[in-house]
Known about the structure:
alpha/beta
Amino acid sequence: MFRLKDLNILGSKAELASLPEGKLLINTINAHSFNTAKKDKLFAEALTNGDALIPDGVSIVKACRWIKAKSQPKERIAGWDLFEFEMNKLEQLGVSGSSQRTVMFMGSSQKVLDLIVKRAAEVYPHLKVVTYSPPYKPEFSDEDNKAVIEAINATDPDLLWIGMTAPKQEKWTYTHWKELNIHCHVGTIGAVFDFFAGTVERAPMWWQRHGLEWLYRLLKEPKRMWRRYIIGNALFLWNMTKE
């Protein structure tokens, strides 16, 4: 049974620095992904069995306190926070090291990836950026999976970002984890691809600080987001009541 009460969730942004080096799968969890995992066994396994799970939602932080969960995160750690931490750390290694560090972005459209390459050259000039845009389809064929895995292994990146929206990105990475012959941290952070590329505007800092980024997204895209945040938040509250 998938329960918030039983999950191992990272406690604070400061704890990102304590994550061990090497091959590490880092996923995020929020109210929407929790609700989805309750109905999707493979997604639940991916979130439960990854190496690190970060609370990308103020609702997760508050719910853990309310139900007296095993994990008691002190603050929200957004996917963007993970992204900035990992990229800055690698950039510093690139500045001080003798060899260039490689970051790979797998997912999204070629248009978004091209914008990521352009911005990364400005913000992280000491990093080499490699991208791969997979086919846009609900499920990959065996040939598609093989091509993605071969591209990742051939790049052998120092940091790998997977961006195909939840739960597809988490399930794909978890399913093919043993086939990825890499040595680095891997983060499943779909929305961050668009934030960094500038194709989607992130909520202003005031909304973020007050735990209202979800409301900002709802107001900006009501037709697309109403089901996730209005029905979804009510469902999450019901699930927490049952726990």
